[in-house]
Specification:
The protein is an alpha+beta fold and 585 residues long. Helices cover 66% and strands 9% of the residues. A seven-stranded antiparallel beta sheet has the order 6-5-4-3-9-8-7, with helices on one face. A two-stranded antiparallel ribbon has the order 1-2. Strands 10-11 form a two-stranded antiparallel sheet. The chain starts with a helix and ends with a helix. Residues 210-306 form the PH domain.
Length: 585
Amino acid sequence: MGSLKEELLKAIWHAFIALDQDHSGKVSKSQLKVLSHNLCTVLKVPHDPVALEEHFRDDDEGPVSNQGYMPYLNRFILEKVQDNFDKIEFNRMCWTLCVKKNLTKNPLLITEEDAFKIWVIFNFLSEDKYPLIIVSEEIEYLLKKLTEAMGGGWQQEQFEHYKINFDDSKNGLSAWELIELIGNGQFSKGMDRQTVSMAINEVFNELILDVLKQGYMMKKGHRRKNWTERWFVLKPNIISYYVSEDLKDKKGDILLDENCCVESLPDKDGKKCLFLVKCFDKTFEISASDKKKKQEWIQAIHSTIHLLKLGSPPPHKEARQRRKELRKKQLAEQEELERQMKELQAANESKQQELEAVRKKLEEAASRAAEEEKKRLQTQVELQARFSTELEREKLIRQQMEEQVAQKSSELEQYLQRVRELEDMYLKLQEALEDERQARQDEETVRKLQARLLEEESSKRAELEKWHLEQQQAIQTTEAEKQELENQRVLKEQALQEAMEQLEQLELERKQALEQYEEVKKKLEMATNKTKSWKDKVAHHEGLIRLIEPGSKNPHLITNWGPAAFTEAELEEREKNWKEKKTTE
């Protein structure tokens, strides 16, 4: 039903466009009412004038566009159409409305009836989009069919030349341009009007009337069993036979379905080239004019029954559908190819830009490299000149060095003699240093003794300070505890007195240690003076040997009696030992 609706819309579109007198895309309501009535008549659809009036009843008395007319056309006419109307009559009604306005006034080699048939064929082969056009592939298909029907040879080169001059902006021809193309005889040169008309009629019968095959054959009667010549017309589901090819006197039909079959028969009763068509209720014996015609008819009927079993459309309609699907596929592929080409072009432009950027970078790099090479060559020349100068100078220095080596060799002998003398002096110096080391050990012993005494003195002082702090705290206590604290104070004073006595004893011992230190110091000064005399002797021999001198002393602690003879670490160690001793007592 969908394909029938599309075929009807194409013819109606021509009629609507023809009624648009001023090319505004709109038609007056009175004309559309007449068109709707005529369509209902030829399509055998009940005409509903009330629905027509209701649809066009509004305040706007102006014309109606194609989009405004389509809802009524679909709802009240096309949806009610059955496949029981005369398609030729329908097409002729639409043709009558549009032919006078659109058919060319130039003389044509075809009649108006032939032009009508070409117009109907155009509607069959045109694309399913508006405005209707027929593309070059379908034009080539139609011209080939006409050339074959005229018995001529197809001129592919001529058509290719025509395609070159084809207007690409239109993408195809309109119905009236197609009629003019066939009517001016460009592709039927050498053919008379009758031949062209017969070819158009043959193609019309095949494509529009679904005539698969036609021709004269002999048919055996069912009652009198006599043989009579009839004009047979094979269609997708029926074989009709007429008295003659003008199709005016129809004698009967052979209804075909998937249960029918066709069989070849042997010659009999003086009849040759026989075949049999078996149907559900009847059997038809037919005689062809020759074996070739017999085989063609058997093959055509067999193919028709096979298509009925498969539920497939006639071959020309199926071929048209395949061509349309192929064009859609090619169009989709072309669009995809164009999209890919655009992407490739964009990518190519991007690559070109990248290459241009790389080229510029390479040029800049080459320029920098050339500049660097120039600088390198200049530097190399400068280095070579500098190297030559350095080489000359090195040669001069080498000569001077050789002279100095000779001089140093003599000095070396003197130096070795001096070294032997210094070795003897070194042995004597070692003996002096040994005496100095012994004096330092004695000094260290005295220093340790002083440190011990000072540590004991520090511990006593800390204890005295602690007792003094306790006395101060005791004074601040209550009167009740004062007597007891006084007794403790007396005891502590006695202990303090004893500590003072011990401190005096330690002071005495410290003085004795100090006297011992002075004695050791004098010995050390004597050893130092002796070492200094040896140092002067060594300095006299160009200072080849450095004397070992006593290291610098760490800063001394300062006590109430003067500088201490021990370090802070030694004092901490003495204090620690004194506290441990005190704890033990």
